[in-house]
Amino acid sequence: MARGETPDAAQRAANELAATSIAALFRGDRASQALGMEIVATGPGTATVRMTIREDMLNGHRVCHGGLVFALADSAFAFACNSHGADALAASASIDFLMPARGGDVLTAAAVETWRAGRSGVTEVTVTNQNGERVALFRGRSAVVRQPTG
Length: 150
Hints:
Layout: H1 7-27, H2 30-34, E1 38-43, E2 46-52, H3 66-81, E3 87-97, E4 106-117, E5 120-128, E6 134-146
């Protein structure tokens, strides 16, 4: 919090920085856009992203390709760990698939940064379907590669 700034003003500033940083990242994110992702909520260290599973996203078993569920979770992770104004990239990530997603399902990935210190962070992402059922759990570690200037 800046000197003389109230907690409410500091939270508003952090929320604004998060929204601005995430919107800028999404504008250049052709992959997330091509997959039909939309950002539905942002905040400092958080992002919620939604994607509808299309027919061209199904594998030979007629369920959503796991790589696309990972891509959704990875995008939410990226937006959350870039919400502080610095440029952060994934250093590692893993996913547990809990149940299949099917054509027409609307998946929502809710990312929450659970730890951040120095240039590193850990973010957990829960992917659910339109019924609120957990489809996957993702955990990513981020590394800041460039601090904001100015």
